[in-house]
UniProtKB/TrEMBL annotation, chain A:
Coiled coil: none
Annotated protein name in UniProt: FAD:protein FMN transferase
EC number(s) on file: 2.7.1.180
Organism, scientific name: Microlunatus kandeliicorticis
Keyword Electron transport: no
Gene Ontology MF terms in the entry: metal ion binding; transferase activity
UniProtKB/TrEMBL annotation, chain B:
Cellular component terms (Gene Ontology): membrane
A GO molecular function held by the record: FMN binding
Biased composition (Low complexity): 41-78
UniProt xrefs under Pfam families: FMN_bind (PF04205)
Source species: Microlunatus kandeliicorticis
Taxonomy of the source species: Bacteria, Bacillati, Actinomycetota, Actinomycetes, Propionibacteriales
UniProt region (Disordered), positions on chain: 40-80
Full protein name: Uncharacterized protein with FMN-binding domain
Domain FMN-binding: 88-166
């Protein structure tokens, strides 16, 4: 029943980065196979898939499926099945947040628009990472604009993830070790307020960033965005989500850990 | 989506806590931030398991953490710390680390349950540990950075760029 396993060997981390979908896509790999040519092949497959996602979902591209739906040239039934999959994820998030998270917004009466970017990023990175998961003897961590999915084989070192301060990007506010799982952070850093509480139409109040650690990056990304959209309710809402840990950084710099034993 | 297998989660949490503990200790010493590096729950070993998840069979690994007083800072001699045995549904797990000059130089797993290939599909993650430190590529003891919607425009000022450069050059 009991066996002995050897010493954990530290392998150097190999990195790649490419600008895609308006964000840096970063890959870190390590392990006995990290220098194999198969890694480059898998990386190119990841990039090709993300380019396809961008071409299909971007609201900045006139010819994307989402843009064509917004112009009334395409119905969701005619769109690629992946788009319907994303819309189903978005609908689940809308229900779970009592409407605070909504990928549909109203420009004017009778002019409802679709912007699924809040769901697409995590979903796309997680989906693309399957090319890396297929590699033998290679641990990977794939990040799209700060949302990442990691995998490290048993017996090899975990990935150590730093969470940056939303107010000072050169400062870390927390670290979290991840063997197999995902970390996503939502907040106003870098881009300014780009998420609105769909119930009020206003940016969330009180919260600077929300980080969620979960099994799946799709879930972590949606929950981080949904929690952030709820402002002061971010931490209490996140506590009610199963299987998550995380961190809320408030605008005054105080921090709330999610997943700790509840305070007595 | 993927099934969380508690036994390996607890195994890994042991490893991870030992890593996390010493890492933050080292940083406190080397970065020289007086009391800012404060793991909020140094003994919170079970926090990786979601509260709603079944906990049967997974013993609390809290006994596996080395006592903080055992850490001797500044000493160049190697010291080993062996964690307490953790009884899991699948067997006993035990972890030993070697620390040299305040850094972890080896992690051994002297006792480890037989590995079921299916159970290798695990998810194991822990609670974040609060820190407060400025990071450079030189002192980085992290592999990746999670930040709020890093865009290409903001990329240059992000920590990830430092890490990427360190790895690419």
């Amino acid at each position: 029943m009991i066996t002995t396993v050897g010493r954990v060997v530290e392998h150097p981390v190999r990195r790649r980065v490419e600008q895609l979908m308006g964000m840096p896509v970063s890959l870190a790999v390590r392990g006995p196979g990290a220098d194999d040519p198969a890694v480059e092949t898998a990386w190119q497959a990841v990039l090709a898939e993300l380019r396809w996602v961008d071409a299909t979902f971007s609201t900045y591209r006139d010819d994307s499926a989402v843009s064509r739906i917004n112009r009334g040239e395409l119905t969701t039934a005619q769109a690629p099945p992946e788009l319907r999959e994303v819309l189903e994820l978005a609908e689940a998030a809308r229900r779970d947040t009592a409407g605070a998270f909504d990928v549909r917004y109203r420009r004017a009466v009778g002019d409802d628009r679709l912007d699924p970017s809040g769901v697409v990023k995590g979903w796309a990175i997680e989906r693309a990472a399957r090319h890396l998961a297929a590699l033998e003897d290679v641990d990977h961590c794939l990040s799209g604009g700060g949302d990442l999915v990691c995998s490290a084989a048993p017996g090899r070192p975990v990935w150590r993830i730093g969470i940056e301060d939303p107010r000072r990007p050169s400062v870390l506010v927390a670290t979290v070790p991840v063997r197999r799982g995902a970390v996503a952070t939502s907040g106003a850093a870098h881009r300014g307020a780009h998420v609105l509480d769909a119930r009020t139409g206003r940016p969330p109040v009180g919260v600077a960033s929300v980080t969620v650690v979960a099994d799946s990056l799709t879930a972590a990304d949606v929950d981080a965005t949904a929690a952030w959209a709820q402002g002061w309710q971010a931490a209490s809402w996140l506590r009610g989500r199963p299987g998550r840990t995380g961190l809320v950084v408030w605008q005054d710099g105080t921090r709330t850990l999610i997943g700790a034993e509840p305070a007595a | 989506m993927r099934r969380i297998v508690i036994w390996l989660a607890s195994t890994v949490t042991i490893l991870v806590l030992i890593f996390g503990y010493h890492t933050s200790t080292n940083r406190t010493a080397s970065v020289g931030v007086p009391s800012a590096t404060a793991p909020v729950t140094p003994g919170g070993a079970t926090s990786g398991a979601p509260s709603g998840a079944p906990s049967g069979g997974a013993s609390s690994p809290s006994g596996a953490s080395p006592t903080p007083s055992a850490t001797s800072s500044g000493s160049a001699a190697s010291k080993s710390y062996t964690g307490a045995e953790a009884q899991t549904q699948w067997g006993i797990v035990q972890v030993r680390i070697t620390v040299t000059a305040g850094k972890i130089t080896a992690v051994d797993v002297p006792e480890y349950p037989n590995e079921n290939p299916r159970d290798a599909q695990i998810n194991a993650y822990a609670l974040p540990t609060l820190v407060q430190e400025t990071l450079t590529a030189q002192n980085a003891e992290i592999d990746m950075v999670s930040g709020a919607t890093v865009t290409s425009g903001g990329y240059l000022q992000s920590l990830q760029s430092a890490l990427d450069q360190a790895g690419l050059s």
